[in-house]
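Protocol step 4 of 6: structure prediction from sequence.
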Amino acid sequence: MKASQLLKDKLYIEYIHDLLTEKTLSLEEIIHHKNTTRLRHCLSVSYRNYRICRFLNLDAKAAARAGLLHDYFFYDRKEFNKNNKGVGHMRSHPAAALANASDSFELTEKEADIILSHMWPVTLKKPRFAESVVIIIVDKYCAVLELLGMMKNKKRL
C-alpha cells in the first residue's frame, strides 16, 4: 500500500488525525517486525482495517483508530522478553497498548476491545465485535508481509 493512497483518503485522515500526536509519531523510531517501524506497521494495519470494515459496513472509524493504536507501546520487545520471564511480549502488549492509548486518548468501548483482543487466540481475550475479528486477521497479514520483507520499500506502508 502506498502512503499516497492513505493520505488521499480524506475520511480516513478525518478519523485518525487527532491520534497523530508527537508521541504517536515517535513510533517511527522503533523497528518492528524486522523490516519496518512500529508506526508504519500501525498505519498499515489501521488503513487496511478501515478499508475492510468500511467495505463490510462495519464501524470503519473504530477500526481505523484502534488499528493505529493496537501496538501503542514504547518498549523494546526483545528487552521485555529478557526481563519478564514467563509473561511474554506477545501476550502482554495488547494490555500495555490499551493502557497507553487510554492514557493519551478517549477511546470507545469498541476501540478498546479491538486493541485488547487483537492478539487472540494468543491472548485469552476473545473479540466482542466484528471489527475486533477483522483486526486479528489484518494484523497477522501485515506482520507476515513485514517479516518476509515484502514491505521493505520505504514508499510503502
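Step 5 (inspection) to follow. Residues 58 and 130 are 8 Å apart (CA to CA).
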